[in-house]
Amino acid sequence: MSAPNQAQPTPTPATERLILIIEDDVSIAEALAIIVEDLGYAAIIATDGPMGLDLARSRRPNLILLDLMLPQLSGQQVIAQLRAEHTARGGVVPPIVVVTAAGRSQASAAGGDAIIVKPFTLETVEATLHRLLDGNHRV
Amino acid sequence: MSAGKKQKRATMRTVTAVTTSPAPTEGEARVHQLEALRALTDTALTHLELEDLLEHLLQHVQEIMQVDHAAILLLDTEHKELRIRAVRGFGASIAEHAPVPLGKGFAGRIAASQTPLIVEDLSTFPLVNAYLQDRLQTLLGVPLLVADRVVGVLQMGTAHPTYFTQEDITLLQRVAGRIALAVDRTLLYAETERARTEATLRAQQLETLYATLVDGLIMFDGQGQLLHMNPAARTLLGLPRQPEYSLAEAAGRLSPYDLRDEQNHPLPFDRWPVTRILQGETLRDTSAVDVRLVNRDGQERDLNISGAPVRDQAGQPIGAVVVLHDVTERRKLARRTQEALEAVLTMAETLVTGPGSQEAPIEDAKTVARQLADLTCRVLNCQRVGIALLDPATDLLKPLAVAGLTPEQEAQWWKEQESQQVPLHQSPETEMVAQLEAGDVIQLDLTRPPYRDLPNPYGITTMLAVPLRLEQRLVGVLTLDHAGEAHVYSLEEQRLAQAVAQLVTMVVDRERLLRERAEAEARALAWKDANQRLETFIGIVSHELRTPVAALLANLQIVLRRFQNATDADWTTDRRNQMLERLRRVDQQVRRLTRLINDMIDLARIRTGKLDIGLEPGDLGSILIDTVRTEQAGYQERLIQLDLPATPVPALIDPDRIGQVISNYLTNALKYSPAQAPVSVGLQLEEGWARVWVRDQGPGIPAEEQSRIWEPFHRVAEIAVQSGSGVGLGLGLHISKTLIEQQGGHVGVESDVGAGSTFWFTLPLIEAEPRESY
Fold first, then answer.
1. Rounded Cα distance, A98 and B349, in Å
2. Rounded distance between C-alpha atoms, residue B410 and residue B377, angstroms
3. Do B557 and A121 count as a contact with CB atoms less than 8 A apart?
4. Against a cut of 0.80, is the pTM above it?
């Protein structure tokens, strides 16, 4: 799917790794998907909260990139819902990266595992994904 | 004894020429004399009227002694003289005889010496009565003696020289003895009568006094038996007439009275004032007892009972006098004053502690002052109470409240008060102002100068002015009056008025503080609200600006990386298309950013009044077609229906700005309705106006939000974007409204929750010109 990329530091066969992007701005969602795929992961996109929750439940992604200002269900509500469901079932919540245009304080209050502030650089996204998926074996 | 008298007679300077007289036989004379004496005694016993008695006595004496003149003189001990009280023979025709001083003349000497006297030749003797001196030759007199006390003189005389024998003298002395006793007895009787009359008179006076006394008066004997009770006492005790009453009965269970102390506790019988007085206690002034008396009919009276025991000479109580003073009215007034004071204090307490909390309404000082004025009016029973506040800025007394006027009078009063525009410190009553400033209560007599000549519409005689002071400063005046009544304000009334004045001051000051606090809170709240809105605004603006920038940057970086890393072989069609898509996104985001920036610039121009609109004749239909076409390009999958009239619709407009409004309406409609739902746009003509509308099938706008959506930064909380992305700054409708109104039109929305919305605007049409008919 992705072309050979020199910026890709480790050619890990990561096709089994799935990343869920919950973002209502399509151009940002698409850009994030390209970045994720360039790293060798698979990407799926949800453009609102309920859709994001559905995909999180059915596809069990390895990581979630989550916007906070979402229609219908906010990013904070999505996080709370996921944590509540996993606690009830005794499962594990995948790492959640909050990607937001709001301030850092609001983002950290949402309770994600990492924060990416908009506008972001490709390097920031790549470094965050490596750290959470390869450096730290939480999955 | 007789020898001594003879001797005394011999010492007188008078010459006694003893002559023989043709006398009856001794036996006959004896019988006659005895009968005369008995008759004399009878007379003495049967007559009680002095003058009458003396007349009869003399008659007998004259009969016995056969003389030309007989007189009885009685001693007036007070004036030390003798007065002839009865005369027979010579001198009887004389209405009034000169009094004879004690020791002087004939009778005077007899009375002084207490011995008989005979003057046989009166020609050289100094008689007091010249009349007798002229007619009488010889005088014989004896003192009227009771025990050793002289009460008068009995004298008799003859016109010719007569020799009185010893027997004559003795007889006369006997007669005198009887006369003296009779006279003394009669005098005593008269005295007793006079004393009795006087006593009766006194008693009657006292009775009248008792009867007219307002206070009840009761007299008991030593056994507690009721002796007397005046009408006032009967009224106070609720008795129709003087009862058969004794304290012994009262001690029993059948007492018709219930006595209570000031705390309204029943008073045991041994503590009853009457009992205490009968036991020797004196209750008066401060020791007088206040009780409440409840009689059998349940009537209550407050009585102040005083009294004292009546003692005999040995100091033993033999009775008691009890005075009942009705203090019901006074106590009522005192209680009312007490109640009023308590009410005032309670009110004060409520004012201080009550509405301090947020939710309690701040009571209007005017309302509270009015309540206080009414209360004062009732408590002090006065006609009017007025309260005015001193405005520190103008030095004018501004009315705050008045009580005691009819609604019409009150309306007039307010008008009068408002029209009085003399600053307090320019008033000619400098002394009065100074007194008020010093905190003194002033009583004004309006019937005297200088007030006498001032207008007095309510006919007030006296009034009270009480200063309202706050921290030693005069802040107002409370006035009250009793209309025409010449009322003198007691200290108690003045104090109560002062208490009310203080309360009013407190209320006014408290209201000021509360108002200031409320204002401060409102300011704080407004500031907080503004702050919150500012923060929300910053949040939205940063989100709305950062999001397209983030999209721009991410997409540009991807494209850039592809160019940097790719060889020619890498440029497959897929890769080309992918890059093209990224660049379209960049283009889209730049447009979006431009729109946002334009909106913000427009808002800034609206705020500063520098919105630039260039009006020119144009066709609304064409603008509508162009705008829909542009929007459709951005939402290619959406269905936009357009409904236009067949002919051009000319209006004086700024075409770009109209396009901006239509675009805004349309974008909203597309954004806030489901992707599959069509949006319709139309233009119609209505009597000189063009009406443009955009209808969606979105969630609709609640009625209460419909006016607020035109405010800047306002967004309906419940409504989420239905399709597409970006919530925007919430400026579009505000800018649209301003733009349309500046072109002479109106905007509006018709919407129901769940039934979609129709946004519209109208613009005036240009009158049809001949050129357009081609």
1. 58
2. 15
3. yes
4. no
